[in-house]
Amino acid sequence: MRLRNIPRAESVLKGCREVIGEPALYRGSWNDVFGNENPIYIEIGMGKGRFLLAMAERHPERNYIGIERYSSVLLRAVEKYMESEEGPAHNIRFICMDAADITDVFAEGEISGIYLNFSDPWPKARHARRRLTSKEYLCRYDKIAADDAVLEFKTDNRELFDFSLEEVRESGRWELSEYTLDLHSDEHKNRGNVMTEYEEKFSAGGNTICKLKAARKA
After folding, report:
1. What are the residue ranges spanned by the domains of the chain?
2. Most exposed: 39, 56, 64, 218, by fewest CB within 10 Å?
């Protein structure tokens, strides 16, 4: 998908102190950025930010970092953050970067949770390594995750979900703890669920939402 360039994106992102311009400088010291020792959770591919903003409000005892590759998409999330009626949450930061470089930005054991919501399915087989739930990415997550870290993944793409289940099972470092092929019909697993923009759109269209949780092996 080709994204439209938005001229104001660079100036808006630079003008927001919660957008971290050179994230690699803070590798191993992200708690200093937040000014506390609370656990850090990241969302990779945060889109317009609805999920991350809701989680930050719901869990003030955690720190959240939203990662988005495209500045035009991150702009939407940052503007939503700054326009919040409740006022900007203090436990949230943003990074514009490629997730492939994640180990350059976070140190070993620095991350307590990883959220992947409606990631690009990269449907062609030759692009499988680019999927955010591939063994290559699971290995990257392992290098930055704490011993008790949790990974959560949601999608409406059944082929991607089946691929992801298999990758987790074969990863050696992540253990599948639970999953469902129809999240919104599962009362237990859907309890406390925070919907993304895509999730609301897809489910309203009659698509079922799949979700898995995996725990990092100590």
Report:
1. 9-216
2. 218
Please say whether the dihedral angle defined by the alpha carbons of residues 209, 86, 82 and 80, taken in this order, is positive or negative. positive
Which 3 state secondary structure label does DSSP give 54?
A: helix
How distant, in Å, are the alpha carbons of 48, 86, 170 from that of 57? 16, 9, 35
Residue 162 appears among annotated catalytic residues: no
For the entire predicted model, the pTM comes to: 0.94
Distance, CA of 114 to CA of 46 (rounded, Å): 11
Kindly give the confidence (pLDDT) of every residue in the chain, 218 residues in length, as a single tens digit, with 9 standing for 90 and above. Answer: 445 567 677 778 888 899 999 999 999 999 999 999 999 999 999 999 999 999 999 999 999 999 999 999 999 999 999 887 666 789 999 999 999 999 999 999 999 999 999 999 999 999 999 999 999 999 999 999 999 999 999 999 999 999 999 999 999 999 999 999 999 999 999 999 999 999 999 999 999 999 999 999 98
DSSP 130-166: GSTTSHHHHHHHHHHEEEEEEEEEEES-HHHHHHHHH
Q: Which CATH superfamily is domain 9-216 in?
A: Vaccinia Virus protein VP39 (3.40.50.150)
CA separation for the pair 7, 84 (Å, rounded)? 23
Q: What's the CA gap between 148 and 217, in Å, rounded?
A: 7
